[in-house]
Amino acid sequence: MKKISIAIDGPAAAGKSTIAKMIAKDLNYTYIDTGAMYRCVAYYAFIKQIDFHDEVKVCALLEEIHIEMLPDGSIYLNREDVTFSIRQNEISMGASIVSSYKDVREFLVEQQRKMAQGGGVILDGRDIGTVVLKDAELKIYQVASIECRAMRRHKENLEKGIESDLKQIEEEIEKRDYQDMHRDISPLKKADDAIEIDTSDMSLDEVVARIMELVEERV
Ligand code: DC
Predict the structure, then answer these.
(1) Which of 16, 69, 142, 192 could pair with 124 as two cysteines, CB 3.0-4.6 Å apart?
(2) Diameter over CA atoms, the chain
(3) pLDDT band for position 162 (50/70/90)?
(4) Among residues 77, 82, 73, which one has the least CA distance to residue 62?
(5) What is the DSSP string of the chain?
(6) CA angle (195 as vertex; 71, 109 as ends), nearest 5
(7) Nearest residue CA, atom 5 of ligand 1?
(8) Whose Cα sits closest to atom 9 in ligand 1?
(9) How does pLDDT run across 38-75, given as a tens digit for each residue?
(10) CA of 46 relative to ligand 1 center, distance in Å
(11) Model pTM score
């Protein structure tokens, strides 16, 4: 069967990575979490005590940053396992800030394209269908209502035993979406040829089944 490239974009906490992982498993494709790469840059700035808003200093760190993404989903930054540390709230917001810098985007987009060479890949992020893989055979724009996204994240936190405030989550997600949609370079938007899926009232299995139908039409 032909191996295609799949792009999944959409706002924060829309369940993109959960869906992308399930599809990658079903198809035996490589999953690339591009958001994790922006998170690594933010995390590195954080441990170096550099203000996320200081573009010059953040970009100067890039040459020291080496990211590895293992098939089991773990993320290494300069040989340190950062899989969990990059998920903190502060780092989510930092990733949204540093992702607006041209040098940061160029640095990561180049790596993402290299990793995606040859197809059989599924990438999720904000600019996959519009910039990184403009020629992807299948582009999904995955959305869900803000209430729904915040509630899912809130439940996830509680399940993991992390303290969680629903209202605060909602505010943070809205702020991050606003930043990601209004930056100058590669803002989040639906590619003209992307298929929008609103997952607010869908189960995970329903979303996966819908995407698998679309994959089958293309392979
Ligand atoms: O998908 P995520 O929530 O882990 O992404 C964290 C931030 O990284 C997000 O707020 C914006 C940025 N990002 C981006 O600009 N482009 C991507 N392809 C992926 C993420």
Answers:
(1) 16
(2) 49
(3) confident
(4) 77
(5) ----EEEEE-STTSSHHHHHHHHHHHHTPEEEEHHHHHHHHHHHHHHTT--TT-HHHHHHTGGG--EEE-TTS-EEETTEE-TTGGGSHHHHHHHHHHTT-HHHHHHHHHHHHHHHTTS-EEEEESSIIIIITTT-SEEEEEE--HHHHHHHHHHHHHHTT----HHHHHHHHHHHHHHHHH-SSS-----TTPEEEE-TT--HHHHHHHHHHHHHHH-
(6) 45
(7) 35
(8) 96
(9) 999 999 999 999 999 999 999 999 999 999 999 999 99
(10) 16
(11) 0.97
pLDDT-derived band at 1 (thresholds 50, 70, 90) equals: confident
pLDDT of 210 over the 90 cut: yes
112, two tokens: 């993402």
Q: Which atom of ligand 1 is nearest to the CA of 177?
A: 10
Determine if residue 76 is left, alpha or beta; phi over 0 gives left, psi from -120 to 50 gives alpha, anything else beta: beta
Please state, as a whole number, how many other Cβ atoms lie within 10 Å of the Cβ of residue 54. 13
